[in-house]
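At your convenience, could you comment on the folded chain following this short note?
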Amino acid sequence: MCGIIARIGHGDATETLLSGLENLEYRGYDSAGIAVQNGSGVKVRKCSGEVDELKSSLEQSLHGNMGIGHTRWSTHGPPTDENAHPHTDTAGDVAVVHNGVIDNYDELRAELQARGHEFDSDTDTEVIPHLIDDYREQFGDTERAVREAVETLEGSYAIAAIVDGEERVYAAREGSPLVLGLDDEEWYLASDVPAFLEHTDEVIYLEDGDLVVLEPDDYRITDVAGSPIERSVDTVDWDPEDAGKGEYDHYMAKEIDTQPTALSNTIEGRVEDGNVAFEDLPAGTFADIETVQFVACGTSYHAAMYGSQLLRSAGVRADVLRASEYDQTAGPVDENTLVVAVTQSGETADTLDAVRKATDRGARSLAVTNVVGSTAARETDDAIYIRAGPEVGVAATKTFSSQAVTLALLTQRIAADVPTATPVEDREAMLQSLADLPEHVETVLETTNAESLAREYFDSDSYFFIGNGLGHSVALEGALKFKEITYEHAEGFASGELKHGPLALVTPETPLFAVATGGDDKKTKTNAIEARTRGAPIIAVAPDDHPLADAADWQLSIPDTHPVWAGLLANVQLQLVSYHAAALLERPIDKPRNLAKSVTVE
């Protein structure tokens, strides 16, 4: 997965391309490049490294009213200058940027080389400009050449291309995200809205099979055969300032701090008269559902665990499945199965693939996502938005909290329809406590001692996280966050599993974070004490008066609240520990090595 951008209109495109790439670096930062066309040839500048290095390498300004740009997360070939995008044909007349994977590139490359095309990189992308050039020579028409090229490609792609001597940007999508931004005097194409949000909030979410031709004063969308397609224009309700870093040193710090606002947006209007309400899910929507499958990856998987446990507690059969393993783990699926796709971006390749397979087997589908108009939102039967706003840091923070709350509410909405479900015993108290969650998160942020704790333990050998019930998913998420941005070894376990093997790793140099939710925390306390007898420092993530605090060396305090929401307060504390430890270790917090935010390739 990579980030691509294109711009055409009046005035110079270079600064817009560079700022767009900076806004897309969460999608990849191995290398970067731009190409502009100004009537005197296609000019390409690219290099390995981050966008700042590209800007520094520009010996002279590139000028042109149209251009394309790319920031890379390497799949084919290492992050070198040669493998950076844009790629060109042999003569340098056609320049292309690409997000995705071309499955048949070996075969195409061999065919093109046999016809005299010369290649300079290890990438799959480089076949695309050569294909376009080959078809241009054959048909004498660039638009037809682009159509022929994309029909020849197998795999996933969002591509944008410019050609010497033409005031046009050509683009196509198949399996990778691409959005068109509309302004009064210029058009944009990008992998994600933040690339151009400072310029326009009017967008068209392109769909698989769409081919776009942009000109300075017009745009056209067709299918690959050339037939016109009408796509609706949406307005993005994100504030451009939300996509910036503001006064913070890191996006992650900002996104942790803005969780109270994100959660308020998530909750707004969804609890009415003691009942859960989703505008597009009227009463009876789930009356025929017998089984619910949550499918997700990474942080979204941990949020899905949260929802799955709550739904099982309400008497509905529910499973949480890793999307990448859906073929092997799905079990029976039919028209009484609801598949809930949990994906922040709405573009996660494994999750989309799992939903498509379930749909082919007759299942109903519902997306829980952050992005209006995303592929997941369009392809499922229904969609619920978590309303967290743009999240730029690669390590998910506010979106986990908003996903977990949205899923908790969804479980109660499903249980209200399923005839055999048994409402949560204290459901009314749970929903009343939810209103206090944003304020409780604010309290954690204002009173945390996470930085002091991080200073005490940031040079330890390993870090363990345990929790029981809903605390288990929080422990797993805490460990994931820690390893993602500190590069230190961290593992999460169900509390009762610590003594079934992992205890062999416990030493005085392995701090153990014990998450208490106020539910069934007996196993968490028992195993924490057992680890402490082996010398491990114990950090209780719990309310002040919780029994676990008495058995701990340190405490990360959380306000008293309903057990369903306590884990989310604990999660904020663990996010802060990870952030401060990574800062002490001088890690690149927003851009952890080898990772990108939106995993849009399998």
User: Anything to note?
Assistant: The two ends are 9 Å apart (CA to CA).
